[in-house]
From TrEMBL:
Source species taxonomy: Eukaryota, Fungi, Dikarya, Ascomycota, Pezizomycotina
Protein name as it appears in the record: P-loop containing nucleoside triphosphate hydrolase protein
SUPFAM superfamilies named among the record's database cross-references: P-loop containing nucleoside triphosphate hydrolases (SSF52540)
UniProt keywords, alphabetically: Hydrolase
InterPro entries referenced in this protein's UniProt entry, alphabetically: NB-ARC, P-loop_NTPase
GO MF entry, a single one: hydrolase activity
Annotated source species: Lophiotrema nucula
UniProt domain NB-ARC: residue ranges: 48-206
A Pfam cross-reference name: NB-ARC
Length: 320
């Protein structure tokens, strides 16, 4: 309790310092702007119904009536982030600002909002390394601006993360992705579950990702079998398609190879996964992926595994 009170007092002190600064116009941010983390996925597949539902529930971003919010929830690897990214690019021409926040923990939220203040909105009072102050500047901008905006909180693990950064605004839209269905409740208005692909859609996705693949009856049936073995999980199907393309084998041939690894590696079941809707682990996917890498590549991945997935400096990836 004392620690929470101390944090609240510190936040209040920061806010008071900001209020004491010379006031600026409510729309001082640079518009239009966005900080989307990656380029548009030109190979995005399906999910039209979910995109339609998102657009229906987040219409408030296009007007000034009220704040609207939706959460996409489902298993890890089911494609929540890709759907959110596809929706963001779909709305890019309709909105003044789209913000992407890495929301695994409070610190990553502060960093993301700080970068929004500095690099996207270019707020005059934003200062490098002043993450908390910059976060409050962004929250204040969201509340006062007349611009049309969408904020995406990606990969939220707990309500506590959202408590410190939920916009106090009467307009705009918020989209959350989370593995936890409980997170997809208040203050969020609507929760949409993202499920695995059914066998037909999973097969179509695998065929779509497999380069120059002829849709023969035998290949289609093999694709259905592989997709079913993967329980329609998009991440796993995407990984399998990459291996099929790298090995330049047919889906039928790959299905035989996968079955061999399946018998060995699916013995190790993750406790609780069956309850969550996915009975098998992804060990098979990782085993096949790593086997095709060189020793240097595996060593590099070992180092990268210790870094934040969203905040690693680009300079670290430059080899000399």
């Amino acid at each position: 309790m004392a620690e929470r009170h101390a944090r609240a007092m510190k936040k209040m002190a920061i806010y008071q310092r900001l209020l004491s600064l010379e006031s600026s116009s409510q729309d001082s941010g640079t518009l239009p702007c966005n900080n989307l983390p990656v380029a548009q996925n030109q190979r995005f597949f399906g999910r039209k119904d979910l995109l339609r539902q998102l657009d229906e529930h987040l219409k408030a971003a296009d007007n000034q009536s009220s704040l609207s919010s939706v959460a996409l929830h489902g298993l890890g690897g089911v494609g929540k982030t890709q759907i959110a990214l596809a929706y963001a690019y779909q709305k890019l021409q309709d909105l003044d600002a789209i913000f992407w926040v890495s929301a695994e923990e409070t610190y990553s939220v502060q960093q993301s909002l700080s970068r929004i203040a500095l690099d996207a909105l270019k707020l005059p009072k934003a200062q490098p390394q002043a993450h908390q102050e910059n976060m409050i500047l962004v929250m204040d901008w969201l509340q006062k601006t007349s611009a049309k905006w969408l904020m995406i909180f990606d990969n939220v693990d707990s309500h506590e993360v959202l408590e410190h950064c939920w916009p106090a605004s009467q307009h705009g839209a918020v989209l959350v992705t989370t593995r936890d269905a409980i997170v997809a409740t208040l203050p969020i208005e609507k929760g949409l579950e993202v499920s695995e692909f059914n066998p037909d859609d999973g097969a179509d996705f695998l065929l779509y990702l497999s380069h120059n693949r002829k849709r023969s009856e035998s290949e289609t049936e093999a694709a259905k079998h592989v997709a079913s073995e993967l329980d329609g999980l998009p991440l796993a199907i995407n990984q399998m398609a990459a291996l099929i393309n790298a090995r330049r084998c047919s889906i039928q041939e790959f299905g035989i190879l996968y079955s061999k690894y399946d018998q060995r590696l699916h013995k190790e079941k993750k406790s609780g996964w069956k309850y969550l809707g996915y009975e098998h682990s992804l060990d098979t996917v990782w085993k096949l992926s790593f086997e095709s890498l060189s020793a240097d590549a595996r060593a590099c991945l070992g180092v990268l595994s210790y870094l934040s997935p969203d905040c690693a400096s680009r300079n670290l990836h430059t080899f000399r």
